[in-house]
Specification:
By secondary structure, this protein is α+β, with helices and mostly antiparallel strands. The protein has 7 helices and 5 strands. The protein folds into 2 domains: 108 residues, Beta Polymerase, domain 2; 58 residues. This is DUF4269 domain-containing protein.
Length: 170
């Protein structure tokens, strides 16, 4: 979906989205990740964030070791930098300004990754079901529900909430 192809839309959004945009631009985070087709995903882009929500950026790499090395070089000076390398993915976390940022990379195109696909389904559901539905999702999240389980609960979906949302992809 073109809306989420870059972060420019954030500068016209809520105060939280504007703050996220300013931090990402100020520190050139998306620009530095450009070789890895970065996409901002999660609750901030679709406006269902709660207190403590972070900025989730997904990336696609072709060489895991090279990606991990570059992430270290690019972001290790940031407060709280931490890197986790698994057989199938790399995750880095750090703080920039008032934002906790998580950079997730795997050897899969970003538009095919679950975080992006879930976000698109959630965005479409928010468009269909309106403000009361959005308020319910936020309420469930404020009471400890993770995002996908909150959507599943609000929609009455059964089974694995992550798969149930993917089953709604158009």
């Amino acid at each position: 979906m073109e809306l989420f192809d870059n972060i420019d839309y954030l500068q016209y959004g809520s105060p939280v989205q504007i703050s996220a945009f300013q931090t990402l631009k100020k520190h050139l985070i998306i620009d530095l990740l450009e070789p890895y087709a970065p996409l901002l995903t999660g609750t901030i882009p679709i406006g269902i964030n709660i207190e403590g929500s972070d900025l989730d950026i997904i990336c696609c790499y072709h060489d895991q070791a090279n990606f991990a090395d570059n992430i270290i070089k690019l972001f290790n000076e940031f407060e709280g930098f931490k890197l986790t390398i698994d057989t199938c993915f790399v995750v880095a976390g750090f703080k920039a300004d008032d934002w906790q940022i998580e950079v997730f990379g795997e050897a899969k195109p970003t538009r095919m990754q679950y975080a992006y696909r879930h976000m698109l389904v959630e965005y479409q559901l928010l468009q269909i079901h309106g403000d009361d539905f959005r308020a319910e999702i936020i309420r469930l999240k404020q009471h400890g529900c993770k995002t996908e389980p909150a959507f599943a609960k609000a929609l009455g979906l059964t089974g694995n909430p992550y798969q149930a949302l993917l089953d709604l992809e158009v």
